[in-house]
Design a protein that fits this description.
The protein is built from 3 helices and no strands. It is elongated and about 45 Å long. By secondary structure, the chain is mainly α. Helices cover 75% and strands 0% of the residues. Helix 1 packs across helix 2 and helix 1 (2-29) runs parallel beside helix 3 (64-86). The protein has one domain (2-46, 62-86).
């Protein structure tokens, strides 16, 4: 049961990160002439970057605190991105 909850929590983290990346892309990259991306594309980009840059340690345990940090980090980045976007 704990693994199922952690899996669903990770899915929420991917969704929040994808929404954050899609908005940041729309606010800061699209004005440069690059096409906008959807939330699904943003999730795919985030997963690709995570896959390429992740530190793989088989002894490391996957914890809910790590997922919580990921969600909070995405929300904080979105908040500050929004503030910067207002100033543009």
């Amino acid at each position: 049961m704990k693994n199922l909850i952690l899996f669903l929590y990770s899915c929420l983290s991917m969704l929040v990160g994808g929404v954050g990346l899609a908005f940041l892309w729309k606010w800061f990259i699209t004005p440069l002439g690059v096409p906008a991306i959807s939330i699904i594309h943003a999730i795919g980009i985030a997963l690709t970057v995570s896959f390429l840059t992740a530190v793989r340690d088989p002894k490391r345990e996957f914890k809910s605190e790590t997922v919580t940090f990921s969600i909070v980090f995405s929300l904080v980045a979105l908040f500050f991105g929004y503030l910067v976007h207002l100033g543009m």
